[in-house]
Design brief:
Layout (H helix, E strand, L loop, with lengths): L1 E5 L6 H12 L2 E4 H14 L7 H10 L3 E2 L5 E3 L2 E2 L7 H11 L2 H15 L4 E5 L2 H5 L5 E6 L2 H11 L5 H15 L10 E4 L5 H17 L1
Parallel strand pairs: 1-6, 1-7, 2-6, 7-8
Antiparallel strand pairs: 3-4, 4-5
Helix pairs in contact: 1-9, 2-4, 3-5, 7-8
């Protein structure tokens, strides 16, 4: 079974998907981390981030792997911590905007999803990557709450600066944000993490029962 979780930044995709996978005993696949890992490797190899041909070759030669605990690996390196740096934050949109790169990454995401029960989160999972997913969820939240959540994750960055960055990111990501028509929307603005996980687990149980 595949559970696809989509939605904008700060809606709770990563936290919810990770907690849900742990509860269900499913694999957790963070597709955003895959683009971050490729960006990290490109910078390590001094590949220009606008060199689409080189980025595609790099992605094909070094497919991203996930460890049992959700760790992210590429080219033999555990990059789980490194890919969350401000440098990667600013660089990954450049890499992720290339359609050719996205297609290679989607192929890899499909391969990973076929390896067993998975919770996959990202911006185009339910509609593009795994349209056959048995459960599709679209997480949404008030922009101010989303900014607050990101601020809690990003020490040293002013709240107003982060809110502006999130607005720019929403505009930039709009072209790659695809909401599946059959996705169940959950507004996480006033919900705790466990409440959101409970709701999605119920959807999974209903699908299994059906």
């Amino acid at each position: 079974m595949i559970v696809a979780i989509d939605g904008p930044a700060g809606a709770g995709k990563s936290s919810v998907a990770r907690a849900l996978a742990l509860r269900l005993g499913f694999r957790y696949l963070d597709t955003g981390a895959m683009y971050r890992a490729l960006t990290w490797l490109a910078e390590q190899r001094r590949v220009e981030l606008d060199d689409v041909t080189a980025l595609v070759a790099l992605a094909r030669s070094h497919p991203v792997e996930f460890g049992e605990g959700g760790g992210v690996f590429i080219a033999g390196h555990d990059v789980t911590a490194e890919i969350r740096s401000p440098v990667i934050d600013s660089s990954v949109p450049i890499v992720a905007r290339h359609p050719e790169v996205r297609e290679v990454m989607r192929e890899r995401q499909r391969e990973l999803g076929e390896q067993g029960d998975s919770v996959i989160e990202g911006r185009d999972i339910g509609e593009i990557v795994a349209p056959h997913a048995e459960v599709k969820v679209w997480l949404q939240a008030d922009p101010a709450v989303r900014a607050e959540r990101r601020h809690a994750e990003r020490e040293g960055i002013a709240a107003d600066e982060l809110a502006e960055e999130m607005q720019r990111r929403d505009e930039r990501d709009r072209i790659n944000t695809h909401r599946a028509e059959d996705a169940v929307e959950i507004d996480t603005t006033h919900l705790e993490l466990e409440q959101v996980v409970d709701l999605i687990e119920t959807l999974v149980q209903q699908k299994v029962g059906a």
